[in-house]
Amino acid sequence: MGVSGFIKGFKLLHRTKPRIRLHPYGYIQRRYFLDTKILNSSDSLLPVLIVGAGPVGLVLSVLLTKFGIKCTVLEKNKGFSKYPQAHFINNRTMEVFRKLDGLAEEIQRSQPPVDLWGKFIYCTSLTGSILGSVDHMHPQDFEKIVSPVSVAHFSQYKLTRLLVKLLENLGFGIHTLEGPDSLDHEPLRGGEILMGYECVSIDTTDECVTATVSFSKEGKLLMRKIQSKILIGADGAGSMVRKLVGIDLKGEKDLQKLVSVHFWSKDLGRYLLNERPGMLFFIFNTEVIGVIVAHDLTQGEFVLQIPFYPPQQNLEDFSPEICKKLILKLVGQELSDIDVIDIKPWVMHAEVAERFVCGNNQIMLCGDAAHRFPPAGGFGMNTGIQDAHNLAWKIASLLNGVAPTSILATYETERKPIAVFNTALSVQNFRAAMAVPATLGLDPTVANSVHQVINKGFGSILPSSMQKAILDGIFSIGRSQLSEFILNENNPLGSSRLAKLRHIFEEGKSLQLQFPAEDLGFRYLEGALVPDSDDVVPAPELPTGRRRDYVPCADPGSRLPHMKAKVLSNFPSEETISTLDLVSENKVEFLLIIAPMEESYNLAQAAFKVAEEYKVSTKVCILWPADSVTRVQPGSKAKLAPWKNYIDVIEVKRSLDSSSWWSTCQMTEQGAILVRPDEHIAWRSKSRVVGDLYSKMKIVFSTVLGFESMNS
């Protein structure tokens, strides 16, 4: 299926509303031992129950807590994962982390220097010939021109550790079943992370969601019912919540099967630090083909990804000793300190859930529970964290009585198209990665076709040992294309292949890491926003698979552009911030940005009146042109009285010829921008608003909060 077909297929799915099936307790109970007991607890109704304590669930719990919403987190595993998994944190996610009590700064302090991880290296072994390399970091990526923060390379388990610490600082407790702090009989009041609890059934009424959770203690399987107003499934690619509510995934299954090997070697880390530092190493030789991900060269932490072809191959073919031998063949020299920590098979999919919201807007899916991407481009965790960022303020608005339940439906309206696009982009990036081995004479589609013939064709009637021998023999013949005899400049075939390979790297047609245009430039076309009156909804843009630079935009649904600004005050020292910092990090608050003009002050007055009626916090930012003032102006206080929630700032240009704020936004200074609590633009007026300002702002707020849909 082509990329355009992939997106069109998902557009059709997005219009359908499949029936939601909530399985009763008995549906699940049959899976468990007869020796179970259901505990009756005196839990009060939790505002939010989050299932899954990975980065997405933990980030959502942080955001909700900062917005004043109590929540409890369930995790089926008894401990937090120590497996590296995701490791690339993109610009937009780092912007979210800037608002989480210094998390972005902590990541930047803890990660390796960028010159140690910016490259992808293609070679015959880690000590052998280099076939090519691609540096994915451009100088402008770290100049903070389009964003106040840069991308990062930081393993998922380390991020989880920081998020848990952050939650503990916010008053959360970590409760295990074995420890003295177990809460198996205690009422839940919010602020708990419960380890070793699995959600096994879900039931809904108009008032609440009831989750039955199972846990083992002292050899017995116990059950407990937990009631909440809202339940979030952030429980990963194999989401039990998604299965329990009967939501299917659509897309491409089984793109590739792999075995992942987590190992440590300080000797290898030291060698690569000195000789060829990088993030990913794609290794092709006559004995083995694999990708080594360098999670931390200084500590010597790596993950090997190697193709896996069951049932001819099984996990016994990847024992720790065999994996050590494979690693040595990929390294190209002896290492004495290889320590294999974990070996696990996994399957690469490209799928998106048919629905993100169900159960009368009471149950939502986030992160991998809602979408499963190929790892190419690092979209998985980043998209999930941005799901949480989109959802948190909407949940808080509903539970604080500011918005109706329809506000939660906009989560799916906004985030599902982004997930569909990112899935297609990830698939395209994965296909680009396959161009390198194909150029070397190792077309992965041929390997997969051979495997299919053995599995389902004439080979399926052969004994399993013979099937394995045939598969190994064919792959060995394929890898012979990588011999030094063929792959050198003096061999016409090898010279031609190497020239094509150089062209792929130079043209940016290999696996890419950064997508600034998609990372910062994604836009919600409908949802909790007011489109421009003259806005023609563009056709879905197809991903190119190439890096494209981000162009700032202030269209409704877009992320607010970043520009440095100085807070005006009567103090000698004035703080320089990003325009993104004008949006509150500790409460659900809208931001209206205006220029210091009479008509704009009048608009702000109207916005304050409407916001007060809707009981939604709103702040006004008066953005002064560069070099126009040096101290706080008394005019704003007088113009906005009696309202006091405003701030005067002045734009800080990078150079004299830099565009002004309003030019960057492609608007006139008579315009105005209303920004949501997630830093996306809810509404804007490109020029002066005419007519009844109060009525205009009432329409804007009612539309964004979802009241207009109730009246229509």
Automatic annotation (TrEMBL):
Keywords from the named record: FAD, Flavoprotein
Keyword presence, Flavoprotein: yes
Coiled coil: none
The keyword Transit peptide is assigned to this record: no
Pfam families to which the protein is assigned, alphabetical: FAD_binding_3, Rng_hyd_C
Example GO BP: ubiquinone biosynthetic process
UniProt domain FAD-binding: residue ranges: 47-419
Superkingdom of this protein's organism: Eukaryota
Any GO MF annotation of the entry: FAD binding
GO cellular component terms listed in the entry, alphabetical order: mitochondrion
PANTHER family assigned: FAD_NAD(P)-BINDING OXIDOREDUCTASE FAMILY PROTEIN (PTHR43004:SF6), TRK SYSTEM POTASSIUM UPTAKE PROTEIN (PTHR43004)
Name by which UniProt lists this protein: FAD-binding domain-containing protein
Organism: Gossypium mustelinum (Cotton)
